[in-house]
């Protein structure tokens, strides 16, 4: 149902049961999947590819040109998966020549006033709380949860199943399965609550915790910690995910907790 007070460019490809509320604007070279709702005053700009059953709330601006002085008008995209909710006044910029796309996965919740800059790749089931700010070229893994008012520096990678406390300044890579908090941002234990909610067994969570004891709590450098983990733990998807993430980190990972305590604290 398209309201007469909305503007929809004749070249836009809109599924038959998309709802577009009054005063929304949909430009050319836009595709929107079945069952999606576009709220009043939302603006969907060129290059947007929005999946099925999404909800785009009033004031959101999707696929605006990048805030990057190197951008020269190249043909790039913003891709949003199915069942994703974009709340009020969220801004998502399309890609540059780096990746030619900015991408948000399926089943995500992007809360009000969040900004996702050019060439970010956000996985599935991600929650970005109110006012999270992602600079360009950031990767966020599946099921990551970033607390409100957090700012992420460009090129940072955030692993799967992470939980990052609100108001964090994220300057280094955050490995998978952990909680991160404090200033400067530091390891704060395993995201055991989130992992249990997603079906990980107590044994698997204990294994992940033991791996991170070598990485963060035994005073080893990263190379030695990786070597020890490879010796002490059999290969598993979780072990390999952790080791590959750390080995491939270009910015370096967040540090051990500044506050000294026993391993049992984590």
Automatic annotation (TrEMBL):
EC number: 2.3.1.129
Coiled coil: none
Keyword Lipid metabolism: yes
Cellular component terms per the entry's GO annotation: membrane
Domain UDP N-acetylglucosamine O-acyltransferase C-terminal residue range list: 173-254
Keywords assigned by UniProt, alphabetized: Acyltransferase, Cytoplasm, Lipid A biosynthesis, Lipid biosynthesis, Lipid metabolism, Repeat, Transferase
Keyword Lipid biosynthesis appears in the UniProt entry: yes
Top-rank taxon, per record: Bacteria
Entry's Gene Ontology molecular function annotations: acyl-[acyl-carrier-protein]-UDP-N-acetylglucosamine O-acyltransferase activity
Gene Ontology BP terms: lipid A biosynthetic process
Domain Mannose-1-phosphate guanyltransferase C-terminal: 6-97
NCBIfam families: lipid_A_lpxA (TIGR01852), PRK05289.1 (NF003657)
PANTHER family, per database record: ACYL-[ACYL-CARRIER-PROTEIN]--UDP-N-ACETYLGLUCOSAMINE O-ACYLTRANSFERASE, ACYL-[ACYL-CARRIER-PROTEIN]--UDP-N-ACETYLGLUCOSAMINE O-ACYLTRANSFERASE, MITOCHONDRIAL-RELATED
Name of the protein in its database record: Acyl-ACP--UDP-N-acetylglucosamine O-acyltransferase
Lineage, opening ranks: Bacteria, Pseudomonadati, Bacteroidota, Cytophagia, Cytophagales
């Amino acid at each position: 149902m398209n309201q007469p007070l909305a503007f929809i460019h004749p070249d836009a490809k809109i599924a038959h049961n998309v709802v577009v509320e009054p005063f929304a604007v949909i430009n050319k070279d836009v595709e929107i999947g079945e069952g999606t709702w576009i709220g009043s005053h939302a603006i969907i700009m060129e290059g947007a590819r929005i999946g099925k059953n999404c909800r785009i709330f009033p004031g959101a601006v999707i696929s605006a040109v990048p805030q990057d002085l190197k951008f020269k008008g190249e043909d790039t995209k913003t891709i949003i998966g199915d069942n994703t909710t974009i709340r009020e006044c969220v801004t998502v910029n399309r890609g540059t020549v780096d990746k030619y796309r900015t991408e948000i996965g399926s089943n995500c919740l992007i809360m009000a006033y969040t900004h996702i800059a050019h060439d970010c790749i956000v996985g599935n089931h991600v929650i970005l709380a109110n006012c999270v700010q992602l600079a360009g070229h950031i990767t966020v893994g599946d099921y990551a949860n970033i607390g409100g008012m957090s700012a992420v520096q460009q090129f940072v990678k955030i692993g799967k199943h992470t939980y990052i406390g609100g108001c964090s300044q994220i300057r280094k890579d955050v490995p998978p399965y952990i909680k991160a908090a404090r200033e400067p941002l530091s390891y704060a234990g395993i995201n055991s609550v989130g992992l249990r909610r997603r079906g990980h067994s107590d044994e698997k969570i204990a294994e992940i915790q033991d791996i991170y004891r070598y990485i963060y709590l035994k005073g080893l450098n990263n190379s030695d910690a990786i070597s020890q983990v490879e010796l002490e733990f059999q290969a598993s998807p979780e072990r390999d995910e952790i080791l590959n993430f750390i080995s491939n980190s270009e910015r370096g990972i967040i540090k051990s907790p500044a506050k000294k305590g026993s391993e049992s604290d984590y």
